[in-house]
Amino acid sequence: MGWLGTNHPGWPARLGPISTSAGPVALRPLRGGDGRRWRSCRLRDEVLIRPWDPTSNLSWGQRHTAEQWALHRAMLRQSARRGVGLPFAVTVADVFAGQVTIGGVTRGPLQSAWVGYWVSSEYTGHGVGTAAVALTVAHGFGLGELHRIEATVAPENIPSQKVLAHLGFRQEALLKRYLDINGAWRDHQLWAMTVEEVPQGLESLLARWRQHPVSG
Question: What long-range pairs does 42-49 form, CB within 8 A, spacing at least 24?
Fold first, then answer.
């Protein structure tokens, strides 16, 4: 297997595009210059993002300074270089629109990881998040050489659940008091998919999306 000889199969990479009603969705590595858009999008969308964000002692504004962006990007780049993450910027018509990340990559007999994502509110309702997750999952199962990809979602986060369900993820469990989110230990649903469930990779995922369109 290729992962025995490298720390970062499938990285770096550029993925897509996929056509959506908002424009072509593509993925690429994060750039230093994405910081301004990252900050403006997340500051504007605090009400939408903060309920699902990890607890922090910093205010929302303090979490989104230029310095915090540099630290955030450096952490993700380091995870990619160590072979434990595949972090991407989501773009719509080449404009930064959010992030999608495969993280917690575990090799050996597990070959598993998790996927997480957010998209700017100006692009919600156009399938941008769904396209980004489809591209990432297909890549994780392909060049990323993963066997299983998981996602944990708060029971109240219905839009995120719809994205996963329409791409073919299975809800497997309810994890009690699983993550420290927005000031409290909160339950999360565990969703998962294995490579055997998408025999044609991206085409399998896109076929499910076309059959059950979702607004994420």
Answer: 44/120, 44/121, 45/120, 45/121, 48/121, 49/118
- pLDDT for the residue numbered 214: 56
Of the candidates 39, 115, 32, which has an alpha carbon nearest to the alpha carbon of residue 73? 32
Segment 157-187, tens digit of pLDDT = 999 999 999 999 999 999 999 999 999 999 9
CA distance 31 to 73: 8
Counted residue by residue, the chain has a size of 216
Helix ranges (H only) for 83-148 are 128-141
Residue of 71, 72, 69, 102 lying closest to 87 (CA atoms): 102
Contact between 138 and 172 under an 8 Å Cβ cutoff? The reply is: no
List Cα–Cα distances, 92 to 13, 16, 145, 190, 200, in angstroms.
Answer: 17, 11, 27, 29, 25
- What gap in Å lies between CA 184 and CA 186, rounded to an integer? 6
DSSP 54-80: BP-SS-HHHHTSHHHHHHHHHHHHHHH
**What's the alpha-carbon Rg for the chain, to the nearest Å?**
16
Residues 6+ apart with CB under 8 A from 174: 155, 187, 188, 189, 190
- Checking if the pLDDT of 7 tops 70, the result is no
Bridge partners for 28 per DSSP? 89
Nearest in space to 206 (alpha carbons), one of 17, 27, 28, 23: 17
User: Could you give the 3-state DSSP secondary structure of residue 25?
Assistant: strand
Answer for the pair 128, 90: CB distance below 8 angstroms, yes or no. Answer: yes
